[in-house]
Amino acid sequence: MSTPRLSPAMRNMLRNAIDGKRIGQGLSGGPHKIDATRRALEARGLLDTDLKPTEAGRSVFAPKHAAIHQEASPC
Prior knowledge:
The structure is a single chain. The chain starts with 7 loop residues before the first helix and ends in a 16-residue tail after the last helix. The chain is an all-alpha fold. It has helices spanning 8-18, 30-43, 55-59. The protein has a domain at 8-59. The protein is elongated, with a radius of gyration of 16 Å.
């Protein structure tokens, strides 16, 4: 299942939670917008009720494909 597109505020709040920062740090719009953004992330299952990122929340910023390191061919 893919995650629905996130607004810039939702991405920033989720990144703050993953990085261990205050979730509202650097967000504009005041407490009402921050609260609405938090609720939207919780409703999508990306933040838990303790404002910690869920596994689904962490996966938003995970690489889509495992990087395979190979030497370039001399050809």
